[in-house]
Specification:
single chain, five-stranded mixed sheet, 10 helices
């Protein structure tokens, strides 16, 4: 649509040039000039083409948009009929007023002996040609007006859809933040009850996390390095309450400085790894990783499954569901999310096609 609007002037100019000069391409100009009353019919053609051009834009801008699209069919076809009558009668009246003597027009001059009577100044076949030309111009202008209206309507729907998607994403981010804050405050409460010296450090970490959630996620995309730092802060905060038997590994490989992604995509999976992958009596090993291969970003988590830690029915939370929704909105056909529960381990593998 925008491309056509950019070159609409030249497209219209080319179209009218073909329409006006096509008769001279089919029939040589010399054949016209040899016909009697050639100058009179040349004047008629100029007048008819001017009327057709005028009616084309009148129908394009007024008749079709205000009558046909508003379902005012009777008024629309009445306007077409009136335009057709004008295109058929005005040239005939013009020839009745201007009679050629062979060179220049003289108003009200006496016609030469070989001049046909006024009732036959414009032959019937020429009137048929005028009718066909008028019908063609009316059809093309109406189709263009309807097409323009349809494209504008589609663009408006797309804009509404984009605004809806933006609103949905804003709601999803607001849902993620309280969920994340709830889990982190639980961790600090646990450290406080243990009277751990790590509680103060945990509060500092929490302030960094909240700063990221509140300010950085206002942007549509953030640097991948910022998202990695956010994960690292969260993992460090979680490590404060781990026992010696528990281990957590977080590795990053590849050119992570090059890309930008949607914020808070990975944190729900990391939260779940700690929530369901730790046990007070059994050894636990949690693996988290990010790897960049070309323009493919790979994220994975792995944690053991303990029967007493399994979520209750209907207690899946909003985290993973929100991530799946955001992936569908922001990375349609550009992501692959695999969630596996096998061999006593819960694994999440997410691949994203990202741009620099």
């Amino acid at each position: 649509m925008k491309y056509l609007e950019r070159y609409s002037f030249w497209l219209h100019l080319l179209g009218w040039a073909v329409f006006i000069f096509s008769p001279f391409l089919v029939f040589p100009f010399s054949n016209f000039s040899e016909q009697p009353h050639f100058k009179g019919f040349l004047l008629i053609k100029v007048v008819e083409d001017t009327l057709l051009i005028f009616f084309f834009y009148l129908n394009l801008q007024v008749f079709t948009p205000t009558l046909l699209t508003k379902k005012k069919g009777a008024q629309f076809f009445s306007a077409l009929f009136l335009g057709l009558i004008i295109c058929l009668i005005l040239p005939d009246l013009l020839l009745r007023f201007f009679v050629f003597d062979g060179s220049l027009p003289r108003p009200f001059s006496q016609p030469p002996p070989n001049m046909p009577p006024p009732s036959r100044l414009i032959p019937f076949p020429h009137q048929i040609s005028t009718f066909l030309s008028f019908s063609f111009v009316a059809l093309v202008s109406s189709m263009l007006a309807l097409l323009r209206d349809r494209l504008r309507e589609r663009e408006e729907k797309q804009q509404i859809q984009l605004e809806k998607v933006a609103a949905e994403l804003a709601v999803l981010k607001l849902q993620i933040s309280p969920h994340f804050l709830f889990n982190t405050l639980n961790n600090i409460r646990w450290l406080t009850r243990q009277k751990s010296d790590k509680a103060e450090d945990a509060i500092v970490k929490l302030s960094q996390l909240l700063r990221y959630v509140i300010y950085q996620t206002n942007n549509e995309k953030v640097a991948l390095t910022q998202e990695i730092s956010h994960l690292q802060h969260y993992i460090d905060l979680q490590k404060m309450r781990l026992n010696e038997k528990d281990t957590v590994s977080f590795v990053c490989e590849g050119d992570v400085d090059k890309y930008r992604i949607e914020p808070l995509l990975f944190i729900p999976f990391v939260e779940n790894a700690f929530k369901y992958g730790l046990h007070s009596q059994h050894k636990s090993r949690i693996k988290i990783g990010i790897e960049v291969q070309g323009n493919i970003l790979l994220f994975f988590t792995e944690n053991p499954i303990f029967d007493n830690n399994l979520p209750k029915e209907g207690e899946s939370g909003v985290g993973i569901k929100n991530v799946q929704r955001r992936l569908a909105l922001h990375y349609p056909h550009r992501h692959d999310l695999q969630i596996e529960d096998s061999g006593g381990f819960f694994r999440v593998k997410l691949s994203l096609l990202v741009n620099a």
